[in-house]
């Protein structure tokens, strides 16, 4: 497999901690797998699990979602369906953001700048703790977000890992219908429970987010140096970053 990866360093803003670790984008890394007529979400569940990452949701995206970051864990998002979408990283929406305020899926108002990437089938994104992100303008367009998540994970019990629980979670994801809309599957290192921070929560305490431990494996590439194991290796000693 030829691995293509794009890396992006996103400095802190006045509202978003972002991270010394680079955002990783693997264009089309899983395209052949998710495009196969035999593809099942359980295949992805198993791949992530082998590499120490727990699948926690599948989402069908609507026109817009609030820009947010996770302060407690790193995240992997893999595109499993649809023609594409725009994902903006690194900045916050305005405080008065609301669902339906931007029905055409505009980038919304808020902090200037950030990084906008086009997501396509089979793309994989590894988002360091603290890096904000929002997915909008999915293709084909849909009117609302549909979020599929096992009930126990929804209740905050992701850390409760037993063979029986993981079997039930695997079965749950296997029953999610994947059609033509833009959909992604999200995973986190086992033990990671994500929060939903929208900006300003860690102002002055960004280093608390920057020191979330590095995962032991890349969710797709495992121990390969082509993945986060190699790409994040030089960032283990985190120095104070300047907030602009």
TrEMBL record:
The record's annotation in CDD domains points to: cupin_YjlB-like
Q: Which residues form a coiled coil?
A: none
Report the superkingdom from the record. Answer: Eukaryota
The record's listing under Gene3D superfamilies reads: Jelly Rolls
* Matching PANTHER family: BLR7373 PROTEIN, CUPIN TYPE-2 DOMAIN-CONTAINING PROTEIN
Q: What is the name attached to this protein's record? A: Cupin type-1 domain-containing protein
Its lineage opens with: Eukaryota, Fungi, Dikarya, Ascomycota, Pezizomycotina
């Amino acid at each position: 497999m030829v691995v293509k990866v794009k890396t992006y360093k996103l400095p802190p803003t006045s509202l978003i901690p972002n991270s010394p670790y680079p955002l990783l984008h693997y264009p089309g890394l899983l395209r052949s797998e998710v495009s196969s007529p035999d593809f099942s979400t359980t295949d992805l569940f198993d791949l992530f699990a082998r590499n120490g990452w727990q699948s926690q949701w599948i989402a069908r995206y609507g026109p817009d979602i609030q820009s947010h970051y996770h302060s407690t864990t790193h995240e992997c998002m893999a595109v499993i369906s649809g023609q594409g979408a725009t994902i903006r990283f690194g900045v916050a929406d305005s405080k008065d953001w609301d669902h339906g305020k931007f029905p055409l899926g505009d980038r919304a108002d808020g902090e200037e700048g950030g990084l906008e990437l086009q997501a396509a089938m089979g793309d994989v994104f590894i988002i360091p703790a603290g890096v904000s992100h929002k997915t909008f303008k999915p293709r084909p367009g849909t009117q609302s977000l549909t979020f599929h998540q096992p009930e126990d994970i929804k209740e905050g019990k992701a850390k409760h890992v037993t063979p029986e629980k993981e079997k039930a979670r695997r079965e749950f994801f296997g029953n999610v219908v994947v059609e033509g809309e833009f959909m992604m599957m999200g995973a986190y290192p086992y033990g990671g429970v994500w929060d939903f921070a929208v900006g300003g929560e860690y102002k002055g305490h960004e280093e608390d987010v920057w020191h979330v431990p590095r995962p032991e494996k890349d969710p797709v590439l495992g121990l390969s140096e082509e993945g986060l194991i190699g790409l994040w290796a030089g960032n283990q000693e985190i120095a104070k970053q300047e907030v602009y």
